What does this fold into?
Amino acid sequence: MDLRRRPLTALAAAVLSTCSLAACGSPAAPAPASGDGATTAQERTLVVYSGRDEELVAPLLEQFEQASGIDVEARYAGTTELAAQLLTEGGDSPAQVFLSQDAGALGAVADAGLLAPLPDDVLATVPAEYRAADGSWVGLTGRARVIAYDSAELTADQVPGDVFDLLDERWRGQVGIAPSNASFQAFVTALRVTEGEERTRAWLEGLQANGAQVFERNGDILEAVETGAVDVGLLNHYYWARSEQDPATLRAQLRFGDPGTTSALVNATGVALLPGTSGEVSPEGLELARFLLSAQGQTYFAEETAEYPLADGAPDPAGVPALEELQPPQVDLSDLASLQETVDLMTQTGLL
Amino acid sequence: MLAAGGVAALAAVPLAQLVLAAAGAGPARAAALLLRPRTVDLLTGSLVLVLATCAGALLLGTATAWAVVRLPLPAPRLWPVLVCLPLAVPSYVAAFAWRATWPQVHGFWPLVLVMVLTTTPYVTVPVVAALAQADHSLAEVARTLGRGRWRAARAVVLPQVLPAAGAGTLLVALYALSDFGAPAVLRHETLTTGVHRLLTGGLDRTAPAVLALALTALALLCVAGERWARRLGSGRRSPAARAAPPVPVHRTTALLVAFALAAVAAASVLGPLAALGRRMLTSERYSASAADLVGAGTTTLALAAVAATAVVVAAVPVGHLAARRPGRLTAALETAATTGHALPGVVVALALAGLWLAVAPAAYQTAVALLSAYAVLFLPKALGTTRTAVEQVPVAAQDAARALGCGPVSAWLRAVLPRALPGLAAGWVLVAAAVSKELPATLVLRPAGMDTLATELWSRTSLGAYGAAAPVGVVLVLVGLVPALLLARSLRQQLPGHLRRAPAPAPVAAGVTGVAR
It folds into this structure.
């Protein structure tokens, strides 16, 4: 009996070790920082955490790879999810660059002391209101919060320019939101900062009581407005501006927030560098930041993602009002770092 | 024994990690998270989905199975294949296809429809097998003793079929409970989507772990119920057992039933495919990039091959033990090794993300972490096939090899492996196909820059780029055809002569129907 048992153990041990070897050596496992070309003296690589959609950013990163010869490994996920991951990984994170779709997540990661300050010449390319006061991140593009509406049902002036009016009975079951999206969360943070905790809590509870429809992502909201599934949806302007069809012909049209109110918030996507395990900012990461702020990078954003480029002298996107006309509220984007409090509030109110 | 124990222990690790992570919340916070109204909403959302899907699948599946086995349908060999085909369409692909066609469609009832259409084979297949093997001679005895046809059927056939239907229905329940993609696409909130939302929208992993634990408790209930129902059904057939003759019905009736069956199959398989195709052709911007599709396809193939190989190798000691030395300890090990069967993908991902970060941060964002999730999730798929494969090799063969001077390992390799190989290969294919379609765990654990077909579909739908997502959906359905056809082949082996063609032993059914994912 024993004879039959022990060989089995030996066999199993052998196959198990083979299997773990196979797993390690799998072609699907990209070995970080070890190029397989032994002849190349030193392959330059860069690990990027991108909270921005792959569809939007991957082509630009490819342009960067071609221009710089640097091999970029990008991890795409939600901005909040990646911020959470960076906070968990702390100094052990393989990430060298964090591309965020909102300023709040950047601020949360900066507050944890995980970001390295950017050099002044990089910071200076962007107006002061679109970068961190401590230089820990710099804005790349601006995106306006908007209310998308179904133009088959509504005219622009029937659509509220202030999100607090969406609690009206008229909008029961007709408002689309994406609570797990970082842009929505940053908007909630802005409400907390400007309107106070209690009013924000009342708004979140009121939205749910009024039957707001919850979507996973902003793109889904736009599709829902476009097809008449909901009358209005809260999202960023650029989802509309770069949708599958020519935006001017869409059934979904945009109402920009009332000037000066939080509803007219212009949030910034941004880039930050992480010192990571080495303790030093990688030159490759800095190269990427400069590239994203260059004329080539900024023009890409304006043309392909229809966001507002933030570097001085960059062109505005077509088909939407110019950035100067938007009159956003007096909110310091660096104040949007209290993401944890926003998440807690949204958890308590049942949106998360 | 030791190796089997090791495999079983590793398979159960995620559950332990999940409990630890949830415990990190502390009783006050855990209670606050679990007792808020949203938890009740999510729980209700899960339960109504499970109940409605089960009811639909049970009715449709049992009726279909009865029609296939007992009615004189035209083209009798076609139907056993056709009833398996809906398994080829992952529920999230079906949901996406319908949504891409009718974007207003969302919510509970459309989701139930999608879930019923995709999960009905979990009921149909075991019931077809049970009906085909049901001992009709007993019903004849009952009739000679004065029972009417229906009462005889109820008294005799029903008890033989009910356990199969029950076990299948509980698999449907488990599928509906664990599924992330289809509820997410059709916007019906369940515990599974709730865990995902807390994971992606929150800043820590404790809160989702608490919710995930509640979800896991429900899933374990389904699994326990399924095992119980299966045990009820494992009675012995009498050697004099006889198959039932076809029920005499009018030719028109048979044709109408055949038409209805074909319509269901079309709605399950052809419908989504046609919807995807239409969206592909009508999209104006964002045409699919062939390079992306090929890249994601290659990555998926590589992952699937490595994961399937690892899983089959890990399944060998446990499967061997189960076949050769059944007993209490073996049963316990087998249960531990099938833990992944009860864990939704999003839960395994959550647990393993925490585990790798704690134990080996370097491995966290590599394919190793992702492969470990696949191994836990899909080991149960390979266990059934492995055990059956080893059972079919006579013990004497191994003993003879030993007597002829082979070492123990080489005896196994030379005497058992060659004969068990077809069964092991079937398990390999099942695992590979499952890996290819896996979405929620892959979304969380994939390394930077890695895209599989499933994540490619997911990320493309996030921009409303439905046209570009459609071809990926088509490829995913084609991948799913492999296990569906394998199951159809193995189902045909269990049918009476007029419903099948050539005999070819393939112990696949255990693997396909044994795991709902």
